[in-house]
User: Fold this.
Amino acid sequence: MVDYLLEIAKTRKPVPPTATNDLVFGSDTPDVLSAPSGGFKSLQLWLLLRNAHAPIFAVDPAAEQSNFKKIGLEALTSISWQSAGPETRLRFVPSTEGEEIAKVQLEILYRTLNMLRHQNFNPKRIPSGKLSRWIFCQDEAHQVSNLHVFQTFLAESRKFTKKLILAASDPTPFESTCRVLRPKAHQEFVKKVSRPGNRLEGEAFSKVLVDHDKECPGC
Assistant:
């Protein structure tokens, strides 16, 4: 029994720290927000991005970041990467017409970003290059876990970007490169504002949630 308990202790993974603004943006290490389905990963990602003072490019498979400007693959090379203001918010939404189509689009996206990241790079300054002022985010990161061009972008992200944040139910494919964090759990808050008579949607929901997030360590 003692040997069995020791073996469990050895193999049990520690609980990841909670993703806070200070923890996430206080380091250039790539982060992956991990929790089971319905575990507030995308919600926490949105809250983090809302407080970021830097231009952001998000891959948004579920089309949830409606306040971000949607762009297509053809626009990637014409973005003002080096002069965009800190309020810039862009997103790419992969096709929902089929998994293979989305995969091809994501491969083109990260192949293009890998090309752009080398432009104006200075090895004496980290990060540097065209993308060095930008925060990049990949929601539903399982979709790119097997893409070599994405893994290359991830492995080199500290050199070329301000920050890279992923959200994934299973962090295993990213554990060797990313710091694993867990989102705050706001179950009680969501239950409260979803009750009949209390229901909030859109900007009203967002505003109340942001105010709640400032006070709540997780409920």
